[in-house]
Amino acid sequence: MEIPHLIELREMFEEDRLAILTISNETAEHLRQFAASAAISYSVVPIGDASLPSPFADVRSIPTTFFIDRNGIIKLAAEGLVSVEEAKAILHAER
Questions:
Q1: Does 77 fall in a domain?
Q2: What tens digit of pLDDT does each residue of 28-38 get?
Q3: Residue 90: inside a domain, yes or no?
């Protein structure tokens, strides 16, 4: 899933209904700078972040993006690219 699609999904759902968390292999400093310059409106964390609990620390593919509902349930874990239509269908099923 590409950044513009993630931003679109972030805007479709209120923050209390959906959390988006992307795991990246970039450094924390690089991610901060990139998030600011690209106006990223969701969370991006480095794979080496020691505070990440399982399953977030156990990803097999980079990037991996987690879509988490208001109850803390992972609705979708997207490894690499996933179509925005697929993500919307899964997320709208919760509505």
A1: yes
A2: 899 999 999 98
A3: no
45's tokens: 């964390």
Rounded to two decimals, the pTM is 0.81
Q: What does the buried/exposed string (b/e) look like for 18-36 if buried means 16 or more CB atoms within 10 Å of the residue's CB?
A: bbbbbbbebeeeebeeebe
Residues of the domain holding 43: 3-81
Give the residues of the chain that fall short of pLDDT 70.
1, 49-50, 81-82, 94-95
* CA–CA–CA angle 21, 1, 38 (5° rounding): 70
By CB atoms closer than 10 A (0-12, 13-18, 19+), residue 87 is buried
Number of domains in the chain: 1
* Rounded Cα gap, residues 7 and 18, in angstroms: 12
